[in-house]
């Protein structure tokens, strides 16, 4: 702090005080309100520099609708810091060590020698952790009492037997950014395990460090609800996992007939800033396509050439919005016409729904956009992150086929209509 200006030092030191004064209308460690019905379950994977706490707004909103949310904290060194707890009271004066803490490892966000291999290693750890978490949920649902290692939270973890809905295809799988990548690779790795050989050549590797248990294999079905929030495409391009990249998400194998009343079970929620970013916009079709191998993805050289035409990311986004708005209505008419001709006049529901939240940026999915709204607005132009959180939660509930509460705001209703 010694080399910083006095006003900047004061501003940085005031951040913890600001966060301490932030209040949320919740009860601390409140018991589950069980009414005899099984609770729907959502498993969530965070992105880079994230933790189990960085998406509390969205998960809290879902929990208020009765969803049992489990936020995993990955120890693949993609998070800012993860504490390894042993159940004993931690002293504030005790310095963290390599045995008690897992620190962030800086890896380039661009494709350079060795980068994709490092991301593959992280994905292996992340998928292993998700598999272990699923087993822990099974034990909890069987009535087992699990020891709570967090000294700040009293008591062990237990609940009545059968409180969670762990029926095949019932778990909601969600992730943000690198967490979205993790969910994609988990679903594909487990779903296609034993069905086909995912290794296209001798250099291909498996992201599964161990065989998935039969219960997890049965859990992941074409009808499993999936919520991908700004999924990060770059790690999917690894030459060691080409077999996974060429395979579609399991939802494309769902049997969908005409006039289906239920919504799509898989959703992709894109923040507007990310959606209009040239690289992200080019890669999204490969994530949601029923035939990813047929999608031509923009090369790094093409992306850099296109981006050089604009003065800044915001300049690109603003001009991209205008250009797409001018052609969106005609494109929609053409798509609708093609669908009607293909289905003989009957529109068939897609297994994946894609949404773009207006006036939002990549961090809107996390708590940062809510806690530091003026900073995010000044840098990215983000507006009304509370509304974005509410509508993201509503779209996830719809994908899972869960009941929605009434909208009590004209503004929320208007934005939700724009999403539909």
Automatic annotation (TrEMBL):
Keywords: Hydrolase, Lipid degradation, Lipid metabolism, Signal. Pfam families: PAF-AH_p_II. It comes from the Eukaryota. PANTHER family: PHOSPHOLIPASE-RELATED, PLATELET-ACTIVATING FACTOR ACETYLHYDROLASE. Residues 1-23 form the signal peptide. It is an enzyme of class 3 (hydrolase). GO terms for molecular function: 1-alkyl-2-acetylglycerophosphocholine esterase activity. This is 1-alkyl-2-acetylglycerophosphocholine esterase. Its EC number is 3.1.1.47. One of its GO terms (biological process) is lipid catabolic process. It comes from Cladophialophora chaetospira.
